[in-house]
UniProtKB/TrEMBL annotation:
Gene source species: Thermoactinomyces mirandus
Annotated Pfam families: HTH_3 (PF01381)
One MF annotation (Gene Ontology) recorded for this entry: DNA binding
Alphabetical list of InterPro entries matching this protein: Cro/C1-type_HTH, Lambda_DNA-bd_dom_sf
TM segment ranges: none
Name the UniProt record assigns to this protein: Helix-turn-helix domain-containing protein
Length: 142
């Protein structure tokens, strides 16, 4: 998945069309002034080194008379990339839930609660998702 900036091409097109941003030819500098940011920030956005906040993208699009989606080209992830994104999310979610569960158990034990009360608290907090979790064995595909 990628977002490819098209800010410079939109600025060039608008300059060729005689467009003005508050009386100035469209450039990274005039755009930066109109947005209230430094020219280096617009340059960074145009190179793809950073992303502006969503409201800044809409403001930029308004100033240039384009739709917000014309400032960036979205290339969706391949199926393989999407599966990796999901796998990474699942891994982080599992780690987070197990960490939160351990912390809560430790906290409740320090307070002197019984194992039954601790298990009930853990269940009520929704931290039992991986209690019976077992890794699925990898199948050999031959």
């Amino acid at each position: 998945m990628k977002l490819i900036p098209r800010i410079d091409s939109v600025l060039t097109r608008r300059r060729e069309e005689g467009w003005k941003i508050f009386g100035k030819k469209p450039s990274q500098t005039s755009l930066a002034r109109a947005l209230g940011v430094r020219k280096q920030q617009v340059s960074l956005w145009a190179r793809g080194g950073a992303m502006p906040r969503s409201e800044t993208i809409f403001h930029m699009a308004h100033l240039l008379g384009v739709r917000p989606d014309e400032l960036y080209e979205f290339i969706p992830p391949t199926e393989k990339e999407q599966l990796e994104i999901i796998k990474e999310f699942d891994k982080k979610e599992k780690e987070d839930i197990l960490r939160r569960k351990e912390n809560k158990i430790r906290e409740l034990r320090e307070k002197g609660y019984s194992d039954e009360v601790i298990q009930e608290q853990i269940r009520m907090m929704g931290l039992t998702k991986y209690d019976h979790y077992t890794e699925k064995p990898q199948r050999n595909r031959t």
